Amino acid sequence: MSRIVNLGLVQMSCSEDVESNFDKAVGYIREASEKGAQIVCLQELFKSRYFCQVVDKRLLVLSEPVNEDSPTVQLLAELAAELEIVIVASLFEKRAKSLFHNTAVVIDADGYYLGKYRKMHIPDDPLYYEKFYFAPGDLGYKTFHTRYADIGVLICWDQWFPEATRLTAMLGAEIILIPTAIGFTPEDISTGGTEYQHAWQTVQQGHAVANACYLAAVNRVGFEENAEGKDGINFWGHSFVSDPYGSVLAQAADDREEVLLCPIDLAFIDQVRDGYCFPFRDRRTDSYGDLTELYSGD
Questions:
Q1: CA end-to-end distance (rounded Å), the chain
Q2: Domains of the chain: which residue ranges?
Q3: Can you list the positions of beta strands (E) in 70-213?
Q4: pLDDT 10s digits, 51-90
Q5: How many CB atoms lie within 10 A of CB 99?
Q6: Catalytic center residues
Q7: If 0-12 CB within 10 Å is exposed, 13-18 middle and 19+ buried, where does residue 175 land?
Q8: What is the CATH number of domain 4-281?
Q9: What is the pTM of this model?
Q10: What's residue 277's pLDDT?
Q11: Residues 6+ apart with CB under 8 A from 118
């Protein structure tokens, strides 16, 4: 018997106006709901431009408390209850003085705040200086039991690590949602290289196959000059949904905002797992001890 759930992915560009970005996202959430979406996921740090392109403590003002009583969460909760949809939203969390996280909240279709996931893997690369802003997550990997499906949430850089998706799937995730901010640097653009984009999508399709679950990556789109007025990132969009066989069921454009709607059949997960059994039954947990080491080749 089919178990159809409609995913809505909101791919958008961002300006320097936080309120305008929030209002735009709300409009797109409503559009997704009107199209039939039951679970709607926003991109990484959707309320602002991707500020991590530079190291600047003045940008910490963009942070906010993230809990069931915080203003942004309350507004999203009211919207979720009104539309009877699940909302996944990535926020810049101010946990305490000088302690910040890159955090995603999950709100159920009745407006109930189910909790949050804090990004575990924090990059530090040119134009992606996240270690200056974010402490690594300390809540572990999570699966949230929503009205429509059991969903796991990871954030951007987490998507490169098979351990993260495996542990999330082991917690029962039927769908892994990954808010993202990734694109081409000026050097990438000048060389015309697309290998990194291909690798980005391929590794995530592999996670869906390896864990026999659905995976949806939600990227931002458009060019964002950094706060110093130098260089910038051309976010490549291409938000997509992969099924448990790694097939791309739906994919957004690379050059425009888009509300991507994708129906998925959760019953297909059991069909794949019953047929192949590789996600869990045949794992050799007794042989994986070295995974807790940083490197075993010394």
A1: 51
A2: 4-281
A3: 86-96, 99-107, 113-118, 143-145, 150-153, 175-180, 183-184
A4: 999 999 999 999 999 999 999 999 999 999 999 999 999 9
A5: 11
A6: 44, 119, 156
A7: buried
A8: 3.60.110.10
A9: 0.96
A10: 74
A11: 93, 101, 102, 103, 136, 137, 138, 139
